Amino acid sequence: MTRANLLIAIAIAVISSSIWAFVNQPEQEPRWPNRIQGFSFSPFRAWQSAIDHVLPTEEEIDEDLALLAKRTHAVRTYTQEGSLAEIPRLARKYGLNVTLGAWLTNDLERNEVEIATAIRVAQENYQNVVRIIIGNEALLRGDLTPEQLIAYLDRVQEAVEIPVSTAEPWHIWMKYPELGEHVDYIATHMLPYWEGIEMAQSIDYIVKHMNMLKQKFPAKEVIIGEVGWPSNGRTRQLAVASPANEAIFLRRFLAKAEQEKYTYYVMEAFDQPWKQGSEGSVGAYWGVYDVNREPKFPFTEPIVKIPEWRTLAGISAIIAIITFAFLLIDSKTLRTRGRSFLATIAFGASTGAVWIVYTYTRQYLNPTTILIGILMVIGMIGVVVVLLAEAHEWAEATWLSQWRRPFTPQHLDDDQLPMVCVQVPAYNEPPEMMIETLNALAKLDYPRYEVLVIDNNTKDPAIWQPVEEHCLKLGPKFRFFHVAPLAGFKAGALNFALEKTAPEAELLAVIDSDYIVTPDWLKDMAPQFAKPSLAIAQAPQDYRDDEENLFKAMCYAEYKGFFYIGMLTRNERNAIIQHGTMTMVRKSVLQEVGGWAEWCITEDAELGLKIFERGYEATYISKSYGKGLMPDTFVDFKKQRFRWAYGAVQILRRHAKALLFGRQTALTRGQRYHFVAGWIPWLADSLNMFFTVAALGWSTGMVYFPLQIDPPLVILSIMPLTLFVFKVGKMIYLYRTRVGATAGQTLASALAGLSLSHTISQAIILGFFTKDIPFFRTPKRARRHALFQALQSAREEGLIMAALWLAATCVVVSQGSETADLLVWIMVLLVQSIPYLAAVIMSMVSGFSKTEEKIISSITAPPPVVEEVKSNA
């Protein structure tokens, strides 16, 4: 790493560490008392559960009471089941008072057992049972009616001389004031988190409602049966669950409780993982101590939001510096601004990744959460890789100081120019279109060339014979071959043409049958081959029918990004994608590598890679020398992109050793990077399919099992949103600055590109599990689909879009959208639907045969001149 790069890394590391330090400034809060008044006490261990009736032993209960005796005067229990009925007896030897609880449900027989046991235990332990609570939130849950609960209260009051009450949130006491006539005191729960109260306002909230209850029941003592804040779990409206918030809340509350002379029980002594089954993930995290009986926060020292922040900042910096160094490999022409941009992205991505892993591992892990965590890490790595690849292209397309491999026009005298064989493969093409192509070739300003037209497998003589006749009219330079049968699709036709090429031809030039070339094409490009190491000269694909309708205008806008952004940056490392039209290749090299691959449906890109593997060079000239025709319908547009994506996987599978490991190849690191990085977004699209299915499944679980399945953690939901926003931002910036696109062109490109996501996903997945998908020819001048037929071409996308919208709607209806995690998850579902919506829009646009001319012109208008990067020339 150079000195400048090291200084940039250090500067960003200092800024990053400063942000960590600023966010984690110590906060001084009131000290925790030596002993508090009481704890809510559920002595379950990690492997135990009240739901499954797996109870702690007396020895385990005794250990917990011995620990709590140092911190509290009393404990509150909830049930008299099994060993839990022994808590008063065990607490007595530690001098702990007990508020005895009886758990009531809609199981009336079980209630009778609870009541009887509570009466017995209270009578046996009258020395330290100071209160009894019959039922815990039984009215809130709807398990009992007020009349049923009152009957239980009256029975227990008659049986014991200890104060009796029930425990409910404050609003239940206000709703059923008649309860006050049947209790000896008011036991209320003050849990501001569940009511979505911001932590900073929570203490005032408690004081307000305690005063309200005192006014409502002036003759009764009001105690707080539960008060607390969770250290983890979902956010409810303004209430954020975190260790720091739990610590701050409790330390502030205890100071206020001492001032107000409250009687209270802190909810709760120990974390209870089993409560996730009844209260969602947050139910596990209300303890002052974790499940291993370790304090979760400091009792007297200043509170820091993330105590381990220095370690996390260090790990983030190490990962970021390694990532930054990797991004700067072979980036000597990148300006300081571009390097600073990459450093910022590297530090941001590493910090986010470290924070996500840290946050996720703070929860209690079980087989389900471990599996989700593994999938999360895999997905996170994928997101970061795509993000870094996109950022690298952004930087190199924007902040190069100079082009390392600029196109430099060469001039050779006519007698020095090599002979060129122009090859035009065709299958079932409209004869009038091909005649236009041939007429343009006849006007080439080049001294020595021939044109070979290879029509393979067209059955109707009325289609190919007019072309044959026209070749005869154009003279001996033009030779026509009709071959049937001929295997190998386009590659087979080109290999056939290679055999028929004039022996003196040194260069082969290939165009599609719909291309009209400019006269200077060969004269500009052929001189580049004076360099012996050059094997390929490539010009952009371009199109001439973009003004026919809105659909084609949108497709045209989408094509531009690859040819005027991606290919330029790839050319810097001699790593262009060869595409099968407007390309020239040295004949001897083509023969050396064995010709065109008939096993691959993207034989052009595969040929380019084979040539690079032999150590040859290619050059890209970003000037249009020929224009063809675009797909006429959305279904054809999809099939074309399916072929490209499927072919990419074929190439990746065949050349994996060379691309991934650099074995037995002359490929440079830069070439290997660009070929793999160029396909990463397509691979990400395939994973996106699985994410969509998982999102629909998770949302279904949220709707049908709201207590058991929470929304995904915000840290999980934020990843796809971040990547989506970054990619959109990159596309808008580069299209406006490098392509010179208008706002309309940028929007059109975005819609067209997004509309292909599902198709690419299918192609990538099939590419890894199949070997031979038939070659699909993109038809030209095809009959336009009617609107209904066009919509049919996006029926899968439309159904998935509708499913995502329905899922978002059901989540809103069943759980609302007030909390941050719910709101973010709903946003994820809606953003996830955008590519599918784009496909539906494109299918509708392709169904219209006519479009307002002014709309088309806003998209097809020539872009403004964009300032070029200075070259070495």
Automatic annotation (TrEMBL):
<feature type="transmembrane region" description="Helical">
    <location>
        <begin position="798"/>
        <end position="816"/>
    </location>
</feature>
<protein>
    <recommendedName>
        <fullName>Beta-monoglucosyldiacylglycerol synthase</fullName>
        <ecNumber>2.4.1.336</ecNumber>
    </recommendedName>
</protein>
<feature type="transmembrane region" description="Helical">
    <location>
        <begin position="309"/>
        <end position="329"/>
    </location>
</feature>
<dbReference type="Pfam" id="PF13632">
    <property type="entry name" value="Glyco_trans_2_3"/>
</dbReference>
<dbReference type="GO" id="GO:0016758">
    <property type="term" value="F:hexosyltransferase activity"/>
</dbReference>
<dbReference type="GO" id="GO:0005886">
    <property type="term" value="C:plasma membrane"/>
</dbReference>
<keyword id="KW-1133">Transmembrane helix</keyword>
<dbReference type="InterPro" id="IPR017853">
    <property type="entry name" value="GH"/>
</dbReference>
<feature type="transmembrane region" description="Helical">
    <location>
        <begin position="370"/>
        <end position="389"/>
    </location>
</feature>
<keyword id="KW-0812">Transmembrane</keyword>
<keyword id="KW-0808">Transferase</keyword>
<dbReference type="InterPro" id="IPR001173">
    <property type="entry name" value="Glyco_trans_2-like"/>
</dbReference>
<feature type="transmembrane region" description="Helical">
    <location>
        <begin position="822"/>
        <end position="845"/>
    </location>
</feature>
<keyword id="KW-0472">Membrane</keyword>
<feature type="transmembrane region" description="Helical">
    <location>
        <begin position="341"/>
        <end position="358"/>
    </location>
</feature>
<keyword id="KW-0460">Magnesium</keyword>
<feature type="domain" description="Glycosyltransferase 2-like">
    <location>
        <begin position="509"/>
        <end position="706"/>
    </location>
</feature>
<feature type="transmembrane region" description="Helical">
    <location>
        <begin position="713"/>
        <end position="735"/>
    </location>
</feature>
<dbReference type="InterPro" id="IPR050321">
    <property type="entry name" value="Glycosyltr_2/OpgH_subfam"/>
</dbReference>
<keyword id="KW-0328">Glycosyltransferase</keyword>
<dbReference type="InterPro" id="IPR029044">
    <property type="entry name" value="Nucleotide-diphossugar_trans"/>
</dbReference>
